Amino acid sequence: MITVTEHAASKVAELIAAEGYDGHGLRVQVVGGGCSGMQYRLGFDEARDDDKVIEEHGLNVFVDLKSALYLAGSTVDYVEGLMGAGFKIENPNVRSQCGCGESFAV
Fold first, then answer.
1. CATH homologous superfamily of domain 2-105?
2. pTM here?
3. What confidence tens digit (pLDDT) does each residue in 3-18 have?
């Protein structure tokens, strides 16, 4: 389904604690938008009835059934570098993406 690296899970847990979202997990969604047609949306949330719930490194990850089709085999990581830091999704289903890397097509 979807994998979250230990570094990403740790960063999400840190952000959840800092923002006061105790009891929440990470929602990973694919939504329409961007110049290539689809984009990722990450946020803090609670489980919904039809979610797939994945537990990775003590973090609950919630994925709706539609997004699960596009995210199969994906990895969520947190990267830090000279140009900044942020969450990065490696998705083997992506066939093309825009130049800025914010949207994709399958």
1. HesB-like domain (2.60.300.12)
2. 0.88
3. 999 999 999 999 999 9
